[in-house]
Automatic annotation (TrEMBL), chain A:
Domain of life: Bacteria
Name of the protein described by the UniProt record: Sugar ABC transporter permease
Family matches, as PROSITE patterns: ABC_TM1 (PS50928)
Source organism (scientific name): Plantactinospora mayteni
Species lineage: Bacteria, Bacillati, Actinomycetota, Actinomycetes, Micromonosporales
Main location group: membrane
Residue stretches making up the ABC transmembrane type-1 domain: 104-296
UniProtKB keywords: Cell membrane, Membrane, Transmembrane, Transmembrane helix, Transport
TrEMBL record, chain B:
PANTHER family: ABC TRANSPORTER PERMEASE PROTEIN, DIACETYLCHITOBIOSE UPTAKE SYSTEM PERMEASE PROTEIN NGCF
Organism this protein belongs to: Plantactinospora mayteni
Residues annotated as transmembrane: 16-37, 78-99, 111-131, 160-185, 210-231, 268-291
PROSITE patterns per record: ABC_TM1 (PS50928)
Signal peptide: none
CDD domains for this protein: TM_PBP2 (cd06261)
InterPro entries registered for this protein in UniProt: ABC_transporter_permease, MetI-like, MetI-like_sf
Protein name per its UniProtKB record: Bicyclomycin resistance protein
UniProt-annotated location(s): Cell membrane
Keyword field: Cell membrane, Membrane, Transmembrane, Transmembrane helix, Transport
Pfam families: BPD_transp_1 (PF00528)
Residues annotated as domain ABC transmembrane type-1: 74-287
Family: Belongs to the binding-protein-dependent transport system permease family.
């Protein structure tokens, strides 16, 4: 849902070391719990926990009701699932339309192929342009940055027309191609250019004097140096493409199968699905991004916040 | 560039240049070209049901002036953009201050607070639908406690539905703003807080004079992204209300898609899309510009 615009180079690296859970450098603003304060420790934890619980209540509902029979959901949606049942999950997985297995497979293909192509395209372009000087470079970078804020509704229809001319409308290659050229590439370039600035010129010149080609310098020297940028780009683009709605809905269309996001929308929107199965489907559709987030949480937060501090 | 390397450029760089050109080409074909086509289409009566399309000059743009649905959609969009941005940022600052501690329990809470941001708008929409629908969790809870006697149509009455969408979007975004404000808080040198303590500056006064000015860069990012997110928002509204009841939650982004894909009025949809684009550019430039200047003056 969110578009983030990190900037700068070296700072991100230091920031990357202090993710959400890491201990911050000695003299910055997170007060350690040992320091005496007016707003007492116990009370504060209780207030914070209460607010957090209220905040995640919708996600709690999604989780517990996925493991409750239909009657229990209607009788008391808030109660914990005891004894838990896997009925909803199995039902969702074995639907005759194969919504979940197909949707997950399609989403995975689109996200993995798109990101696998966006990373080399974005980083090679950023490396190439960051070695250039002058106004053309500045103008191109501004044009790419502008791509971040263009509402997808503006470019959707012409994009479908262009894909039709290419004979790729309503196809997965078409959807992936549209992903490569749009705002996602903008984001990748934006992140990479910030990092490329901090790659020392001497290293590149030394490699060049040894006769290494541009491609080789980029792949073997620059890419390892900008790994944090690659982490940010891969994490966010995977999540956004996975969760994307408008493009797959209209570029693929209903006949070409669906991604997990559009499949969820079309199925639940068109057919009446009982609550038990609805929660089972939502659990299965949401669990992968959540697991992914919990796994790479530090890089996730670092990428998100790199533009937020001076 | 020095002599020997200049001589050796050309061939060895060709591969990289090709790759960069490919990226630029894709960007031109799938972002710049669609923009231009959309602009061109906005001067036509393009309609997929018609064999030929004619240029009709500025007629789409003059039609916009008298379009009540468009005016209503702009009102919805601006109300949502303003309300959600204020709410999500206020919540984010409050949440960040509350959670800005290092012990394990706070770290767990911070992890959890960001979860809504990870889920797709479609899932978020359906989860909230089970809460807000007629026999949903909210009505059940309010009736059990005795606040309501009969279920209230949260998504079925115009003002309540708009409010609900605002709440849901603010909920998603505040996960993001919290993380941004936490990072901003953590970048404040502790010396500043120590000095404020020595001067006896506490509580709300300390927030006003130390914390708020110091988190200004976080505010800039947070506010800009909140605004842009709401301006292009589609999935959450499509799932929760599909623009209803009676178009009361139809944002401009939804109106464009409806014009183009349901009413087949592609030319007019393109003109409205140009308006949304201009609005986004205006917001991004003026608000972000103002916030950046504010960072310096604070």
């Amino acid at each position: 849902m969110t578009t983030v615009a990190p900037s700068g180079g070296t700072r991100e690296r230091t920031r990357l070391a202090s993710g959400i859970g890491a201990v911050p450098p000695a003299r910055t603003g997170t007060r350690s719990t040992a320091r005496p304060r007016r707003f007492g420790g116990r009370l504060r934890v209780l207030v914070a926990a209460a607010v957090t619980l209220l905040f995640v209540a919708p996600i709690y509902l999604m989780l517990v009701n996925a493991f409750k029979p239909q009657d229990d959901i209607l009788a008391n949606p808030i109660a914990p699932p005891w004894p838990p049942t896997l009925e909803n999950i199995t039902q969702a997985l074995t639907r005759p339309d194969n919504l979940i297995p197909l949707g997950l497979r399609n989403s995975l293909i689109v996200a993995v192929v798109s990101v696998a192509l966006l990373v080399p395209l974005g980083s090679a372009f950023s490396f190439y342009i960051s070695r250039k000087q002058g106004r053309t470079k500045a103008a191109i970078l501004v044009a790419f940055a502008a791509g971040l804020m263009i509402p997808p509704q503006v470019t959707l229809l012409p994009t479908i027309q262009i894909l039709t001319w290419l004979g790729l409308d309503h196809s997965y290659p078409g959807l992936i191609l549209a992903n490569l050229g749009g705002g996602y590439l903008s984001f990748a370039v934006f992140v990479y250019v910030g990092f490329m600035r901090s790659v020392p010129d001497e290293i590149i010149q030394a490699a060049r004097l040894d006769g290494a080609s541009g491609l080789r310098v980029w792949w073997q020297i620059v890419m390892p140096l900008v790994r944090p940028a690659t982490a940010t780009v891969v994490i966010f683009l995977t999540l956004w493409i996975w969760n994307d709605f408008l493009n797959p809905l209209f570029i693929l269309g209903p006949l070409q199968g669906q991604t997990i996001t559009t499949g969820l929308y079309l199925t639940i929107g068109q057919y009446s699905v009982d609550y038990g199965q609805l929660f089972g489907i939502m659990f299965l559709a949401g669990i992968l991004p959540v697991i992914g987030y919990l796994t790479v949480q530090k890089q996730f937060v670092a990428g998100l916040t790199s533009g937020a501090t001076k | 560039m020095s002599g020997p390397r200049r001589r050796r450029r050309g061939t060895p760089d060709r591969g990289l240049a090709l790759l960069a050109a490919l990226a630029l080409g894709l960007y031109l074909v799938f972002l710049v070209l669609p923009l231009l086509l959309s602009l061109r289409s906005s001067f036509t009566n393009e309609n997929p049901l018609r064999a030929t399309n004619d240029f009709i000059g500025l007629r789409n743009y003059t039609e916009m002036a008298g379009d009540d649905q468009l005016r209503a959609s702009l009102k919805v969009t601006l109300l949502l953009a303003f309300g959600v941005t204020v709410a999500a940022n206020a919540l984010g600052v409050g949440f960040a201050i509350l959670l800005n501690r290092t012990s394990l329990s706070y770290r767990v809470m911070r992890t959890v607070a960001f979860l809504p941001q990870v889920l797709s708008g479609v899932i978020v929409g359906f989860v909230w639908q089970t809460i807000l629908t007629q026999n949903g969790v909210l009505n059940t809870a309010l009736m059990t406690v005795g606040i309501l006697d009969e279920p209230y149509p949260w998504l079925g009455s115009p003002n309540a539905a708009l409010l609900c969408i605002g709440v849901v979007v603010a909920w998603v975004l505040s996960g993001f703003t919290t993380v941004v404000y936490l990072a901003a808080l953590q970048s404040i040198p502790l010396e500043l807080h120590d000095m404020a303590s020595l001067d006896g500056v506490r509580g709300s006064q300390r927030f006003r004079t130390v914390t708020w000015p110091m988190i200004a860069p976080g505010t800039t990012i947070s506010v800009t992204i909140s605004l842009i997110t709401v301006l292009k928002l589609y999935d959450v509204i499509a799932v929760l209300t599909a623009g209803g009841p009676a178009n009361s939650t139809q944002s401009t982004a939804l109106y464009i898609v409806k014009l183009a894909f349901t009413s087949d009025r592609v030319g007019y949809a393109s003109a409205v899309a140009m308006l949304l684009l201009a609005l986004s550019a205006l917001v991004a430039l003026t608000v972000t510009g103002a916030l950046r200047r504010r960072e310096v003056s604070l």
